């Protein structure tokens, strides 16, 4: 396997994508949707700051967090379409065998196709940078925090592209692999939440409370026993991996704590770490006092993505000893 071989495959993939002409319209639609969302979000936050009695000094904090969650949601919709037909689509068109008979290895073809789909996804993310910069300029978000969040989004896009490509190598028909890619995205996002809450009743534990001289018994769920079910969720990973916002003095606790009010990323991070810790009281300083969840979720997703790439390379090996029913070589 050589870098030049990967570049050859990636360049060919880019040329094929550019010939279709639809990408320019997808990019225009992406920018239009992000611009509309950012503009409406900024207007809504401005109205909330003007009418709120408390005030919002760092309007950029909720603006940036909401924008990045929205971008991640769009990325999870776009990424499967970039790679879900990268292998079986070429096989259906009869062009895959032409590449396989060249000196290119299976891993060069695999990584070249993966690089093309991931880089295409990163182009979408780059178009988001002006709007992310707008949120940073509103205040409350440091450049290092913004870069870290963008890096996590980029990595999650790559993971989804790798999984979709693995499904493209596994299934013979492009429509099947595309459908299964979106089912996989649903499982990672909505499915993990459903499984987590369905598992909570299985963790009930009897606890005793003393109140006004009396003792009361209640069944309380133990989320720290099943927190790992939520760890692979991309939104949980992004919220928990985001660096803590600026610290400020909390008069209720008498300590310096991160500003989490109004920041959706911090809110998700506090929720995730609270689930993992065996503490009943909700604590706003969980971002700094509780163990992180995102390394486990991100590590799991990266392992699955790596396994999908290994599956792609295995299915591209030549000579082919066994073909699925209805699959042709050329």
Automatic annotation (TrEMBL):
Protein name: ABC-type transport system involved in multi-copper enzyme maturation permease subunit
Keywords: Membrane, Transmembrane, Transmembrane helix
Entry's transmembrane regions: 25-43, 63-83, 114-137, 149-172, 179-200, 293-313
PANTHER family according to UniProt: ABC TRANSPORTER PERMEASE, ABC TRANSPORTER PERMEASE PROTEIN NATB
Native organism: Saccharopolyspora antimicrobica
A single MF term (Gene Ontology): ABC-type transporter activity
CC annotations in GO: plasma membrane
